[in-house]
Amino acid sequence: MAKVAKTTFRCSECGWTTLKWTGRCGGCQAWDTVEEVSATPAGAVASARVNSPARSIVEVDVESAHAVPSGLDELDRVLGGGLVPGGVMLLAGEPGVGKSTLLLEVAALCADSSPVLYITGEESTGQVRLRADRLGALAPDLYLAAENSVAALVSHVEAIAPKLLIVDSVQTMIAPDVNGVPGGVTQVREVAGALIQLAKTRGIATVLVGHVTKDGSIAGPRMLEHLVDVVLQFDGDRHSRLRMLRAVKNRYGPTDEIGCFDLTESGLIGLPDPSGLFLTRRNEPVPGTCVTVAVEGRRPLIAEVQALVAPTAAPQPRRTTSGLDGARVAMVLAVLERRAHVRIGAADVYASTVGGVRLNEPSVDLAAALALASSHSDLALPRGMIAIGEVGLAGDVRAVSGVQRRLTEAQRLGFTHAIVPSNSEEPVSGIEAVGVDDLGQALQLAMPTRRS
Is 94 labelled a binding residue? Predict the structure, then answer.
């Protein structure tokens, strides 16, 4: 017997499905958003005309799938070589972080060799032109269009035949034949599907700008991230010039690389060596500071951890962090109090990083502990010293990955001494690395005159 098709209902906002109609969505709790989905008999799939016949994998041409450099080295580093023809990239980030600025610079660089189409759904073409004047991103083959309809976008593509298509943003585009509001789940799904099909059939490298929610995740259905080839996250502190580009998903390259940019009035400038932004230049060492080497992706970054321990009369001492994981700093404070006998519990504690960099990996624990103990004892750490290691609850200093690479970067920048876990990799010439087993040994090496 033929299977009978079941009628289903779907929420137009979040995609929640149910077998019977309800006035309120059970997923997002929105009212009057549940609509009937047209059903077809189960298993009744008819054959259709194919786009191209199947070929042996050894006969498939790979030249057209090679990445083309965008002209922006930091972006190419993250993508694994450049933009891939027919590849679809989703760029997400908070408002004002610089997404449109980044893409406008990329569009101008790519327009030097091939036509580029920039579709803006949030601004007028005049506003984009003003930004391009300020950035110096003007090129004859860079075409602008202010559109919100996918059908109109396809017409522009047919007229210009671009090699790079930028859509800012996917949440503002509308598929005319689909119900739902712009930015809703149904519209975003259909718009993304149409743009991906357009990119694949015409071999156009496509970049979609995506909005983010309050918690930092990409707005819209999760399916959007699965459909595209590359998902990039562009973030940075609003009060800092540093911007970082990370690959969350990449079908064409690595996902452990980051790109660093300096946001200036004239646009974004790539930083092939950003370590200088995260250090404070001073003539004499200051208590409460310690330098470490973090690894973002495969790139080692020299960073400075600062701490201030101040007496307080308040019954509840303050614990404030900036750029560091608050939970790990609280753990380090407890280990210092219990294992190293640093009486710090009744004081206000402030810990931060320099330059707005965020250090969340465990290898920063030892530097944070030394900075806190240095501020509490009012003793400066030796000049030219760095600290690398994870601190355990028993007070032990655990090994971390990539110690040799971190020490090489520190030696390149002129550091001469390092405190590392005792079971680390082979030493690096030019820098004296001393291994320690626990936090007490590290404190004794860094501050021999410290009193418990």
Answer: yes
Question: Looking at the structure, do residues 296 and 339 belong to the same domain, yes or no?
Answer: yes
**Is there a contact between 9 and 37 (Cβ–Cβ < 8 Å)?**
yes
Residue 43: CB atoms within 10 Å: 8
Q: Does residue 47 sit within a domain? A: no
Q: DSSP secondary-structure letter at 359?
A: B
Give the β-pairing of 347-353 and 299-311: antiparallel
For residue 53, is it within any domain? no
| The two three-digit tokens of residue 129, written as one number | 């032109």
Please tell me whether 80 is known to bind a ligand: no
CATH code at position 437: 3.30.230.10
Q: What is the H or E stretch that residue 223 is in?
A: helix 223-227
Strand 17-18: give its sheet, edge to edge.
17-18, 8-11, 34-37
- For CA atoms 194, 196, 200, 205, give the dihedral sign: positive
The answer to whether 428 touches 407, Cβ cutoff 8 Å, is: yes
For residues 291 and 259, membership in a common domain is answered with no
Count of domains observed in the chain: 3
120 and 209 share one domain = yes
Query: How many other CB atoms sit within 10 Å of the CB of residue 401?
Result: 11
CA angle 14/15/18 to nearest 5° reads: 120
Task: Show which of 241, 272, 303 is a domain's final residue.
Answer: 272
Q: What is the residue range of 13's domain?
A: 1-39
Residues 215 and 341 in one domain: no
Compute the half-sphere exposure of residue 6: CA atoms within 13 Å on the CB side of its CA.
8
**Domain shared by 212 and 99, yes or no:** yes
Residues 249 and 290 both lie in one domain: no
Q: Which of 373, 343, 392, 360 is nearest to 444 (CA)?
A: 373
Q: Provide the residue-wise pLDDT of the chain in tens; the chain has 452 residues.
A: 455 556 788 887 777 888 888 888 888 888 888 888 765 555 556 677 877 788 898 888 777 778 999 999 999 999 999 999 999 999 999 888 999 999 999 999 999 999 999 999 989 999 999 999 999 999 999 999 999 999 999 999 999 999 999 999 899 999 988 877 888 778 888 999 999 999 999 999 999 999 887 666 776 667 788 889 999 999 887 777 888 899 999 999 888 788 989 888 888 999 888 877 788 877 788 999 999 999 987 789 999 999 999 999 899 999 999 999 999 999 999 999 999 999 998 999 999 999 878 898 999 999 999 999 999 999 999 999 999 999 999 999 999 999 999 999 999 889 999 999 998 877 888 999 999 999 999 999 999 887 65
Tell me, yes or no, whether 150 lies in a domain. Answer: yes
3-state secondary structure of 169: coil
Query: Does the annotation list 100 as a binding residue?
Result: yes
